[in-house]
Amino acid sequence: MAASQVIGVASMLPFLKLVTDPGIIESNDMVHVVYEISGAKDYHMFMIVAGVVVLLLITLSSVLTVFTFALQYKVVQQTAYDIERRILINYMQKDYIYFLSDNTSSMAKQLLTEVSHFSEYMLMQIVLTVVHMVMSMMIFMLVMIVDPMLAIVTMITLGGSYFLAYSRIRERLLKLGGIRIRALDDRFKSATEALGGMKAIKAQDCSGYFINQFSRASHQYHKNIVKYQSIRLAPSYFVQSVAFGGIVIIILYFLAADQPMDDIVPILGLYAAAGYKLLPSLKTLFNAVSLVRYNHPLVDRIYNDLGGVSDKVDELLVDEDEPMEFNDRIELSDVTFRYPDVSDAAVNGVNMNIRKGSRVALAGLTGSGKTTLADIVMSLISPSDGRITVDGVPVTRENATRWRKIVGYVPQDVFLLDDSITRNIAFGVPEKEVDVDRVRRAATTACLDEFITKELPDGYDTRVGERGNRLSGGQRQRLGLARALYRQPSLLILDEATSALDGVTQDHVMQAISELPQEITIIAIAHRLSTVRNFDTIYFMDRGKIVMEGRYEDLIDMNESFREMASLSAA
C-alpha cells in the first residue's frame, strides 16, 4: 500500500513538469520514447494521456489502500475474536471458588467491552503505526531524491514537532489510561447492580442511591475521555500550522536560490502532493502511538485473563470422557476446606459413608458448612485436606468432569435461561443433540408435564422470560429438578431446594423427589427438617464439623439444637 501511495505521488512530478514545459518531450530521450509509443497525434493529446495515466495510478493507489485496510481490519477483528474466546474458555476452566471472590460484572466488561476496545484502540493502532511509518519513510525517500537538504529539513520539522509533543504527554496518557480502566470498572459494577437488583431497589425506594453511584463513575469516565482527546488532538493542529507554514518556506527557499518559476511549480506540486499524503500519515502515526500509550494499562489485564490458554483451544472443548462408575458408595475421609484469606475452616475433618441409593440429609444452622460440603462432594471445589472416593476411586481435578457427568444439582435459586422450557431442561446441550423424549420424561418425573402442556401457550416451546420471571417459585424449582433429571444422574444434590417455597408447593416438590427411582442417591441440604424426616441418615453439622448423625427421631431425642431447629421448621 505504501509503495502504491508513493507511486501515485511520484507520478505528479513528471506530469507537472510536462505541463509547464512541453519541450521536454523533445529534450528528454526517455519522455520522447514514451511519446512515440503512446501514438499521440500531438503534444496536447500526449499531455491528456499522461494526465489520465496519473489519474489511474492515483485511483489504483486508493483502491489498493481500501483493500489493504479491509485486510488489516480482518486480521485485527479475527484476533479480537480469538482473544474473546480464549478469555471465556479461561474463565470457564477456573475453579468454582474463583467466581466466589471475583466480580462477574468485571469479567463481563472485560469480555464484551475491553477486548473490543483493545482490538480497535491497541491492535489496530499498532498496525496503523507500522503502515504509516513505512508510508512516511517511503514518501520521505521520494522527496529526498528530488532535494535532499529540503527533505531533511522538512522531516525534522514535522517529525520533530510530533516527537517533541509526544515526549511531553506520554506519561500523562499512561495515567489517564489507568483512570479510564478504573472508572469503567465502577461504571459496569454500578450498572449491573442497579439493573440486577431492580425488585429490591423498587421495594426499598432507593433508586437515587444507585443512580448517584452510576453517575459518579460515568462522570469520571467521560471527564477522563475529554482530557485524553484534548491532549491527543492539540499537537496535530500545531503541526498542521507548521506544515502549511512550510509551503511558504519552500517558496522562499527557491526564490532565494533564484530558481525560475517553471522549476518551482513542479517541485512545489510534488511537495504539495507529498504533504497531502505525509501530513495525514504523520498525524495518524502520532494518534496511533498516543492511543497505544493510553491503552497500555489494558494489556496487562487482558494478558492475565488469557491465563495461558493453550493455542489448541478447540481440543479443550472436546468432551470424550466416559462418566465415572458409581455402584457402591461415596466416602469422605478427613475432608477439610478453607476459603482463601479465611483462617477458620468451613469444613473441618468430615468423614461420611454414603451408600448407593440412600437418602442423606445435611442439617445445621446457617454457616455450619453444609453448602460447602455439598460443593466438595460435587467436586466444584477441592478439599484442602482429606479426600473423596467413589467406589474406592479418588475424585481428583483430573477426573472431576467424569464424576460430575453423573451428578444432578438443584439449587435454592434455579438459574434459568431466557429461552424455551425445552432448552432450560436440556441445559447446555447443543440443540441438534436435545432428546425431546428425555426432556418430557424428566418433566413428567418432576410433576411438571401437565402444567407445561395444559397451561403454557406454546407448551415446551414457551419462553420462560429473563431469569424465569414468568414462572412461580415452585415451577422454577420443578424445572430445576427436571433439568437435573434430564442428565439421568446417579447422585442428586438438593441445596435447600424447597426453602423458599410455601408449604403446599414444598410438599408437591418433595413428593416428586420421593418418587424418584431408588437407584438415584440423594443428598439434601435441609432448611426445613420436615422435608427430610424420612431420610435414611441426617448429618447434623456445626462449625464445619459433623457433630451427630442418625435418623430424624434419633437426633430429636439426642440433640437439643436439632430439636430446636425441628420445632422452628414445623412452625
Short synopsis of the structure:
The chain has 571 residues and is an alpha/beta fold. Helices cover 64% and strands 10% of the residues.
Task: Characterise the protein shown here.
This protein is of the alpha/beta class. The chain has 3 domains: 82-306, Up-down Bundle (ABC transporter transmembrane region fold), CATH 1.20.1560; 319-406 and 491-571, Rossmann fold (3-Layer(aba) Sandwich), CATH 3.40.50; 414-488, P-loop containing nucleotide triphosphate hydrolases (Rossmann fold, 3-Layer(aba) Sandwich). It is 64% helix and 10% strand. It is built from 22 helices and 10 strands. The strands form 2 sheets. It has a 6-stranded mixed sheet, sandwiched between helices. Strands 2-1-4-5 form a 4-stranded antiparallel sheet, covered by helices on one side. The protein is elongated and about 120 Å long. It starts with a helix and ends with a helix. The model has no long low-confidence stretch (mean pLDDT 80).
Q: Distance N terminus to C terminus?
A: 80 Å
Give me the CATH fold name of the largest domain. Answer: ABC transporter transmembrane region fold
CATH architectural type of the largest domain: Up-down Bundle
Instruction: Kindly report the spatial arrangement of strands forming the biggest sheet.
Output: 6-7-8-3-9-10
Q: How much is the average pLDDT? A: 80
Helix content: 55-70%
- Number of strand segments: 10
- Quote the beta fraction: 5-15%
Please give a handful of descriptors for the protein shown.
571 residues, alpha/beta, ABC transporter transmembrane region fold, Rossmann fold, 6-stranded mixed beta sheet, 10% strand, elongated
